[in-house]
Amino acid sequence: MSNPLEVIIEASSIEQLKALIKSAEDAIELKKAGEIQAIREQMVQMANQVDMTPEGILAYSTRKKRSSGKAKFRNLNSPWQTWTGHGKKPGWMKQALENGADIEAFRIPE
């Protein structure tokens, strides 16, 4: 048994099919607008439950913001250059250590 929609399509002219497509596209836009409005209303209700706006919820991040860390080492020749002791050693530290310096000489007293 064939699909009734297929029967209609098969029996229709090109002009009738174009009109059908246009009607279907219009119907899709109407349905989409209705569904979007319903979703917006749900979002507002849900946001109100936590005393926020929908925009605030979308922008909210649960990830803890990490600070870069407190500097533990300072370049003796250029005091504005510091290093936390985490990650790759900066070039000035590598060069100093290669030249025989002790890393403790660069430690910032607490």
TrEMBL record:
Classification via Pfam families: Histone_HNS
- Molecular function (GO) terms listed? DNA binding
Superkingdom classification of source: Bacteria
Matching entries from SUPFAM superfamilies are given as:
H-NS histone-like proteins
Q: Where is the DNA-binding protein H-NS-like C-terminal domain?
A: 63-108
Stored SMART domains: HNS (SM00528)
Name the InterPro entries on file. Answer: H-NS_C_dom, H-NS_C_dom_sf
List the protein's name: DNA-binding protein H-NS-like C-terminal domain-containing protein
What is the organism of origin for this protein? Candidatus Contendobacter odensis Run_B_J11
